[in-house]
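REQUEST FORM: STRUCTURE PREDICTION
Request ID: SP-0412
Submitted by: Lab K.M.
Chain count: 1
Length (residues): 288
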Amino acid sequence: MTINSESVFNNGGRVSLVGVASVVGLVVLSGVAATGGAQKVLVISWVAFAAMAAGAWLGARADETNPYRLVWGYGLASGAMVTSAAMFLVPQAMGLGGQAGAARIGGVGIAAGIVIGYGTHTIGHRLTHLDTSFDMTTTAIAAHALSAGLVIGLVYASMPELGILLGLAIVSHKGPAGYAAARRLSRSGKSATALLLPATGVGLTAIPSALLPVPESAVLNAVIFGFAAGIFLHVAMDFLPNCEAGSEIDEVCSLHEHSHDLLDELRTHAVGSTVIGAAAVVVAWVAI
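STATUS: Completed
RESULT:
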């Protein structure tokens, strides 16, 4: 079938068939996870789905993009992600590398995750400017969700005793991402149900990869944890609220009077939200 402006990916204001099919797929995989011992990944998958679906629902129904809501959503999520990656993944990567007699191998994985994450994001952004008949922004978000789920699944397969707090913090950005993406689709007259695919993307890949047998190799696991830390640190830094000229937040502020003053005010909110997001993970870790 030729993909056009009325395709299953981008069908005007109608329900996305791919989105609905992805939800069905997640439901089926949930049964596999429940019986296969991947309960933590199962919970993370559905939290990711609920967060993005809720964000998309709010974004599709908002009359305008609220800059404060956007900044706080991004700030809380990015702060939580940076702290989680630094607390739970980086020490594991370095510790496993030390067990293998080469602690720096974990650092190699971290560097690879950051560099590859940056490279794929940058090339993917270029693709969004291509003149295609389907929404490339939604496709890019879906690709990110599917790849993130693959990494989450491998991490929990390598070390199932990891707490669920890590996974929940990692997918915390799904809410603000869904909100922003739905606003873009709504302004273009497109259905936000296309975001059901990226909403389920984490679970669609995390559950199968969590059930894969992982060799008990300290070197391999050090690379996996390092790569995961690098990927999620890149994503977290990409979600840090950017209140500079030309940013997404600046575009939202330009629709308001006294936009320069508003942007200055939002910088304070950006710092505060990021600090609170980071602190929340530490407090949750201590409490649990």
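NOTES: Residues 1-12 have pLDDT under 50 and may be disordered.
Reviewed by: T.R.
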